[in-house]
Fold this protein.
Amino acid sequence: MRPRAPAPPGGPRRPARRAPFGNSRMPLPGPPPLNQADPQSGTGSGAPAGEDPAGRMTGGTHMSVLKRVGMTAMAVAALVVPAGVVVGTAGPAAAKAATTQGCPYGAVCIYPQNAGWNGGHPSHFYYSYGAHNLSNMVGVHRIYNNQSGGATMRTCTGYNGTGCQGYLPANNYIDKDMTPINSITLQR
């Protein structure tokens, strides 16, 4: 075994390995070997990293960049995905959102007068786009837009969607005095 040169002032020297062809030497990529003893912390095996007579690296931990990246990705995945969870691709059934406060996904719901969420029991459900005429709806009612894809809802003072006011975006609600309101519209 050849004698080793003293370590440079900036830290231990990285060992070199033989190039695939010829006798030239090329530096080993990556951090220095992990088995060198750390005199301050007392860690490491203390066995020197070097070469055997055939020029193969001995000691230390040397792995390819791809292997390191793969191991890091696996470690991150293990932290992110809890044990026992099955991970798969989302199909059409998985894309459907849940009912919120008793209002089915894709609907606009109106709750009874002065009842807030009414324990998750809306009194009126509207699914189709266009105008919907209302009758006998007075006082303050909560309206929840549980539509998808940016669909909005409007309240209108006239019948058949005339004299409309504002836009209620998807996944929002409003407490509205419905006394002057005679129709609502649902639109994309």
Observations:
- Confidence is low (pLDDT under 50) at residues 32-39, 41-49, 83-95.
- The helical segments are 65-80, 92-95.
- Residues 18-65 form one domain.
- The chain is about 10% helix and 25% strand.
